[in-house]
Write a sequence for this structure.
């Protein structure tokens, strides 16, 4: 049998091309950045083989698998694998545990296309375990500092400019608040964890042993932070980013109105603005209970007027009304309470330039 490869660190550090031979339903639940799904069996074929395995045993299941994937179907799949292998001669293939499916793909590639292509020993399961261990080890071994601040202070902007920043919201494709949904969907929770782990692995390989990450709740949209990391975040020291109310309103206007609207229009064309408006209104309705009836009705009128004006003239100026109202009456009191509760952990507070410089010098001291 052809070569197996088990240097998982090398695979992720060097972004080795990989093809995943699992069924699409398995791939959707969780995979790795940049991996291509080229399955041995589709979902229905896998289900039938699995049922056969339970009822009649392994040998009967193998026979059924060969019957289902034969003739033109087999030739088409081998062609897809061969195309990938030729395009990525430095790549690898894998299945769930590095067992029968990847062995069959490997053998067929060699027999039918003359390509000797290596597979990942232990498969998806072993690589996933390696990445989870990578996160656990980082939490245990590295120094972490949280970046806190009121809504709209630009924490993500600071994080993405730091060589040791971990952008949790970027990996989750979500801005973190009730209004944080993007036009494009979020990754599965497994994909989110895998992306974060690869980021940590690459940064540690460059000698980074201190990380800065935003002070988040356990959930970033639908993505849950790994529990050891979230538990650590309850004790990590904190730096607090400050900005004026005016500056925060303008940043939120840009991120949650101008940029989000553009995302929807890019994705959906003429229907984009309507979908953007629906999303904004739904986000406000999500916090209706916490706002209370009277406040929610006031903000809703302001938002509806702003959307109507934006649709009519393209002007976004009226959006400042509900943004400032939400900050003053809802988000700021909540964050002020959080700051007071976490006050003993705050080791520095300041504006964007001061915080950036402090965090940069802090990482140099740690290095």
């Amino acid at each position: 049998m052809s070569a197996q490869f088990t240097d998982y660190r090398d695979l992720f550090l060097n972004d080795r091309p990989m093809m995943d031979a699992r069924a699409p339903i398995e791939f959707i639940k969780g995979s790795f950045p940049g991996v291509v799904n080229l399955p041995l069996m589709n979902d229905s074929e896998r289900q039938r083989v699995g049922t056969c395995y339970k009822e009649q045993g392994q040998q009967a299941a193998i026979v059924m698998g060969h019957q289902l994937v034969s003739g033109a179907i087999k030739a088409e799949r081998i062609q897809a694998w061969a195309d990938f292998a030729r395009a990525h001669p430095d790549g690898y293939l894998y299945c769930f545990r590095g067992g029968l499916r990847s062995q069959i793909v490997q053998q067929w590639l060699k027999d039918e296309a003359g390509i000797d292509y290596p597979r990942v020993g232990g498969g998806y399961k072993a690589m996933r375990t390696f990445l989870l261990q990578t996160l656990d080890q980082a939490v245990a071994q590295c120094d972490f500092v949280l970046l806190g601040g009121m809504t709209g202070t630009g924490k993500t902007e600071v994080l993405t400019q730091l060589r040791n920043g971990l952008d949790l919201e970027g990996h989750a494709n979500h801005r973190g608040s009730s209004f944080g949904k993007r036009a494009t969907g979020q990754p599965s929770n497994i994909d989110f964890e895998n992306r974060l782990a690869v980021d940590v692995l690459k940064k540690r390989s460059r000698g980074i042993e201190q990380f800065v990450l935003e002070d988040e709740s356990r959930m970033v949209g639908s993505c849950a932070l790994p529990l050891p990391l979230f538990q650590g975040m309850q004790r990590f020291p904190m730096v607090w980013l400050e900005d004026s109310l005016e500056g925060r309103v303008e940043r939120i206007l840009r991120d949650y109105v101008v940029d989000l609207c553009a995302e929807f229009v890019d994705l959906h064309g003429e229907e984009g603005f309507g979908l953007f408006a629906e999303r904004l209104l739904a986000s406000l309705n999500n916090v209706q209970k916490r706002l209370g009836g009277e406040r929610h009705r006031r903000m809703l009128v302001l938002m509806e007027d702003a959307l109507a004006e934006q649709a009519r003239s393209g002007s976004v100026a009226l959006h400042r009304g509900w943004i400032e109202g939400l900050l003053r009456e809802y988000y700021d009191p909540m964050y002020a309470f959080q700051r007071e509760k976490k006050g003993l952990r705050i080791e520095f507070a300041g504006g964007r330039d001061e915080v950036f410089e402090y965090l940069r010098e802090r990482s140099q001291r740690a290095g």
Notes: The chain is about 60% helix and 10% strand.
